[in-house]
Amino acid sequence: MSIDIDTARRVAHLARIAVEEDDLPALAGELSNILTFMEQLNEVDVEGVEPMTSVTPMRLKRREDVVTDGDQAEKVLSNAPDAREGFFAVPKVVE
User: Some GO term, biological process aspect, for this entry: which one (predicted)?
Assistant: First the structure.
């Protein structure tokens, strides 16, 4: 599939990318190359191929999804330059 200059201009506009008129032919060529590569990928037969997360089969570690407060408030606030009433104290920045 070939992208013309008008289509490249429209794509740049939709993507909110400022492209000079002189650079539009190069952009059109790059977009055409991307679409050609995508067409090549669509020709690959992936029937029966399972999705994978890694080249080596592994199972992700699982844990129970429980909401906690972390029980480390004092430890976390010990690094704060200024902490008051169990919270980080920061300078006021809005009048």
Answer: translation
